[in-house]
Amino acid sequence: MTAPVKEFVMRHDFKDVPKFKEGVYQYSPREEHFNIPWKMSVVRRDGFLGVYLYCDQLKTNKSIRVEFSIQLITVTGKKNQLHTSLTYNTKNYAWGWGKFLDWKKMEKDYMIDEHITVETHVKIIEITGIKRKKLKNFDATMEEYSDLVIIVEDEKFHISKFFLADQSTYFKSLLTRKQEESEKPDTTLDDCKSEDFQCFLELIYGEFLASQSTYFESLLSKKQRGSKKSEITLDGCKSEDFQYFLELIYGESPIDEETIDKIVHLADKYKAPTAIRKCEEFLMNNSGKTLKEKLQMAKNYKLENLKTACLSKINTVEDIRSVLSYTTSEMDPSVVGALLQKSLSLLP
What we know:
single chain, elongated, alpha+beta, BTB domain-containing protein, Potassium Channel Kv1.1, Chain A
């Protein structure tokens, strides 16, 4: 499975379009994606429809490079779309097109019952400015109490071999093979960020015994000195993502809108059921992702409880439209079937 990317979709129905006043902006509700608030706007000006995407509340040291497209759509599938690449910052927080579409053409081809539907597809390429504080350290300060070193992007994570193997069948198999080579083998992980792996370990690991008891701290420190540690190097993985992953499996709570995609990707890759369950619980109970986004994640990572929870919230024709993809082949067949049944039940 390829590494997760930061993408999201926003859709809003703007009503009473013929009543729009010249030069007065109409806004969609604000939505939060990856810990960043976004909104859309439309405006009637000089015989054209203007459309814009806003990135709200950017701090002075933060910028966001994106690719996005804005389109007008109809129930028949007809659409008018424009695409661009740009960077949001404190001086440039709104981008779009003042002459997106001729107003009369919009009324003729895209307005239905005085409504228009605007949809924006956004792909975040890079976010700069704010670095997340680690919830748990796996650096050299933990060296005395660990028996395994995992190297990701040249960053070393000092952890417990037993605990990691207990939480991840992937690492259990890997460490079993390594055990015959040395008493404490080193392992390098590929396709992973160290920060995400940090989150993963924090969730499943809880607190180290040594960090909670001075007696065991002294005892373990004496036994650990002089012993050779295993090392595993992971390639194809970012150290930042691996940090998140470790934090999660070590008992911390690193999951939020910005980290969920990275953590669930690694939890699935490393077959860590505890981490997967906690990711699924976040998506069900705390995430601001759309139903469409959640259903896609349920398909990608086989999150059956999430899929069931999403389907239970789809009760209207508009709900069904909001989760449909233009290419139904990309959707879970069982979800397509459930949506068909729901649509039939809504027929008069």
